[in-house]
Design a protein that fits this description.
eight-stranded antiparallel beta sheet; 35 strands; 589 residues; alpha+beta
């Protein structure tokens, strides 16, 4: 029987996780040499490549010294924590990848805590030791302190450390001793990560992930915990409500390299994909037909934010999108909940409005961006944090906010975060940057990133991570500028924008089509103001003395999707179409 190691990779966003997996794939020579090689093989989704983050967890396997190593790539951002918890259930050990300069970050703490709870064996990989100002030894001590703080066992604290640079393709047991390959890392995996055990008995497999293809439909992915699964045999599917359902495995696949291989039988300890099963949910157990035993269900952290999703009913409705009706919107949102565990959708008393609950703004924005690229048109309201009643006390979600910023801007950052009810926990120098940690209510983060980047001239590196629900901290005394609202529909003229330029900042270009009620800019004052941007210069056949002054218009302010979501107010919607993002007043007379 082939020896198997199942290992998950944990790392913060941009610490080099996907690059390291590329190098492991190269070392094992599993790619066809004749084909064109792309970087970041596992970030296959367009959004992942653009943002440089891993959103969906993926599986890949290599054979090294006749041992099969299943590598599970996990998302680095806490907003995708729902993905991480399921994935760790499939692993026997974790590779904790840490930047040699930045050290362990809040998201690393979040995922590592989950891994240690499950009793997984860690190997610490300190990456990017070729960076200037890096402190690998100090980072090693910080990782030890973090594991100690997370109640790691004696065995877990006695972890193996490997140093190197994934980008340059080398790993070593000593960061001063540069090699020309990553073999020390692969050897460490074989020596330190326990073999996937083989448990005799009736079969048990928990569905922890799913895939979908238009040819075979939904594919169940998970680890066989006990016994063997065989192709073409009948099994029992144990559901969340305690009911069972007879199912037959049509096809069985194991992960080989970057793809899948057909298998007649899969042993306990291996990870496999099953086609032909209908009506399953993530967390269900495939068990023996005559004596079904369900595995304990997965617990997933609850959502902390909600947004209202509704159909697009603006004057520009249906011009750019392919799917615009409430039926399309409903079907797409409920389809997303099948594979996105941390997402919840609720119907409202209106047929065309849905409350969508997620883990944070990034989690919800990735869903909106994906729908937008698929051709959907929709409107979303302002993100709201979820309040809870715990023992009669009104509670709200709190997050740890970590900001690395040039020292000259640190006082501005502390001031801005304090205004949003944030408390400073840690302030220490880190290289030429100041490292600040705050505890802040989640609602204080809405709209904060923009202000921080403006105040620090784009120099702030910002990360945040949900911690707990705590007592409500009272209202935020925000000073918010009003909106400039278009009072007419048509094309915006340069003449009108120029004349109204001193009223505020504009979000639109000259000759752009706008409609009545659209938010076209930000007022310098705190109240909303309707303006006419359609008006052109009155032309007569009388020649006037004096010439026209040259039109001098400041460039429009550009917003990303997340910035728009944070910018809109309670009485505004963000209109999202495949080509445009527009902010508008919900009711404008």
């Amino acid at each position: 029987m082939q020896s198997i190691r199942n290992i998950a990779i944990i790392a913060h966003v941009d610490h080099g996780k996907t690059t390291l997996v590329d190098k492991i794939i190269d070392q094992a020579h599993i790619l066809d040499e004749r084909k064109v090689r792309t970087e970041l093989l596992l970030d296959s989704n367009d959004l992942e490549r653009e943002r440089g983050i891993t959103i969906l967890s993926k599986n890949v396997s290599i054979i090294y010294k006749d041992v099969k190593i299943n590598i599970i790539d996990t998302p680095g951002h806490a907003d995708f924590g729902g993905e991480v918890e399921r994935v760790l259930k499939m692993a026997d050990g974790v590779l904790l990848l840490v930047d040699a300069f930045e050290g362990p970050m809040p998201q690393t703490r979040f995922v590592l805590g989950k891994a240690l709870e499950l009793g997984l064996t860690p190997i610490v990989v300190i990456n990017k030791v070729d960076k200037p100002n890096c402190t690998p030894d100090l980072v090693h001590d910080k990782v030890f302190d973090l594991m100690f703080a997370l109640d790691a066992t004696e065995e877990q604290l006695n972890f193996k450390s490997v140093y190197g640079s994934a980008k340059q393709g080398w790993m070593s047991y000593d960061w001063k001793d540069q090699t020309d390959n990553i073999i020390p890392l692969l050897d460490s995996i074989l020596e330190n990560i326990p073999k996937a055990p083989y448990f005799e008995g009736t079969p048990q497999m928990q569905i922890t992930s799913l895939d979908f293809t238009s040819f075979v439909g939904r594919i169940a992915i998970g680890r066989v915990f006990r016994g063997d699964l065989e192709e073409g045999k009948d099994y029992m599917l144990c559901k969340a409500d305690g009911s069972t359902k007879k199912v037959r495995i049509k096809e069985l696949h194991t992960f080989e390299g970057l793809g899948k291989d057909r298998a007649l039988k899969v042993r306990s300890g291996d990870i496999c994909a099953i086609t032909g099963i209908e009506g399953f949910d993530i967390g269900d157990t495939i068990a023996d037909l005559t004596n079904p035993e369900a595995l304990p269900r997965l617990k997933v952290d609850q959502p902390t934010m909600s947004m209202l999703f509704t159909i697009n009913n603006s004057p520009f409705y249906g011009k750019e999108g392919k799917y615009v009706t409430s039926r399309h919107l409903r079907d797409r949102l409920y389809k997303e909940t099948e594979k996105n565990l941390a997402l919840r959708v609720e119907d409202t008393d209106s047929e065309d409005k849905f409350n969508v609950f997620g883990r944070g703004i990034l989690h919800l924005s990735v869903l909106i961006e994906t729908m937008r690229r698929e051709g959907y048109e929709l409107q979303v309201g302002r993100p709201q944090v979820i309040m809870k009643d715990i023992d009669g006390v009104r509670c709200e979600p709190y997050e740890t906010l970590v900001i690395n910023v040039p020292e000259e801007h640190s006082s501005k950052v502390i001031n801005l975060v304090s205004l949003k009810k944030g408390d400073l926990l840690i302030m220490e120098p880190k290289g030429d940057l100041q490292h600040l940690e705050f505890s802040i209510p989640s609602r204080g983060l809405i709209g904060l990133r923009n202000k921080l980047l403006t105040a620090t001239s784009g120099g702030a590196i910002i990360n945040h991570n949900f911690v707990k629900f705590g007592p409500y901290k009272g209202d935020l005394n925000d000073v918010i500028n009003g909106a400039l609202i278009s009072a007419e529909a048509g094309k915006a003229t340069a003449y009108a924008i120029d004349k109204l330029g001193d009223r505020g900042i504009f979000f639109i270009d000259i000759n752009q089509e706008i409609y009545k009620g659209q938010v076209v800019g930000e007022n310098n004052r705190q109240d909303d103001m309707g303006i006419n941007l359609i008006k052109g210069k009155k032309l007569t056949n009388v020649r006037k003395s004096g010439t026209d002054t040259a039109v001098n218009i400041a460039p429009k302010k550009e917003f990303s999707l997340e910035e728009c979501m944070e910018y809109i107010k309670d009485d505004e919607y963000l209109e999202v179409t495949p080509l445009s993002l527009r902010m508008r007043k919900i009711m404008y007379r």
